[in-house]
Amino acid sequence: MESFSEHLKRQREERKIRLSEVAVQTRISLKFLEAIEAGNFDILPKTYIRAFIRDYASAIGLDPDETMKRFDLYLESLSPEAQKVEAETSRKESEKSVGLTRTQKIAGAVGGVIILVALSYLAFSPTKKSEPDLNSYGRMQELSRRKFDSVYRASVPAKTDSTRLVLSASDTVWVNLVVDDGRTYDLLMKPGTEVAFWGKKKFTMTIGNAGGLALSLNGRVFPPLGKTGVVIRNLTIYKDGTLKK
Questions:
Q1: Which of 155, 137, 176, 138 is nearest to 27 (CA)?
Q2: For a designed S-S bond to 172, which of 46, 74, 97, 105 qualifies (C-beta 3.0 to 4.6 A apart)?
Q3: Strand partners of residue 238
């Protein structure tokens, strides 16, 4: 009997639509689309599985509502043990989005000690630069922000005519970002994560869980984009601060 994922793949192939074309239309990464067609739902962001499947169905010309009914029947057909595994996977994913694991807490504590030692050295160094008056947690957040900034600054050198876009997550958020119709990034941002990108003309995004993401352009903070759980597609931000949905 044909499985749910096999049905989707067959429907796409019968329509002679390449998976790369679906990726361009939906702005869902090819890796996630391949996982849907392989029935490997465990690697997908749990919050967005249903949204991804609906978008996939629309892109290949299927009725999204009928496709979701098929998906629900597929879930019901799982054995009790498979359902238990699926529920446990969802529970663990949820826990990850709201707290740290024990290993992460230990790693964080060790990292905190290292950071405090480094800060102590800097505090008594005669060549130190002035730092903002932050508590230990604030310093860790500042160092974390600089780490993310430095990663993207290294890959996208800042120029005098560059425009800086900062994404700050207060909840788990999935973002597909295209910079100047060129570089593309797929991000699954956890609460407290902040990343920066540089471009010349515009940034185009598809955002899952819009209520969990804040944007700023060259220091200008934009109003909330939407409510929690809302998906925004093809949002474009131009260098002058203009938003186009």
A1: 176
A2: 97
A3: 202
Q: What is the mean pLDDT of residues 39-62?
A: 88
pTM to 2 decimals? 0.44
Q: Dump pLDDT digits (tens) for 172-188.
A: 888 999 998 788 888 88
Q: Give backbone dihedrals phi and psi of 163, rounded to 5 degrees, phi first.
A: -115, 130
> In angstroms, what CA-CA distances link 136 with 53, 126, 155?
43, 21, 29
Res 196 pLDDT > 80? yes
237/244 Cα distance (integer angstroms): 7
Q: 174, 207 in Cβ contact below 8 A?
A: yes
For the chain, report the end-to-end CA distance as a whole number of angstroms.
42
Which of these, 196, 203, 194, 186, lies nearest to 242 by C-alpha position? 203
Number of Cα atoms under 13 Å in the Cβ half of residue 204: 11
Sign of the alpha-carbon dihedral angle for 211, 192, 156, 133? positive
- The answer to whether residues 166 and 194 touch, using CB atoms and an 8 Å cutoff, is yes
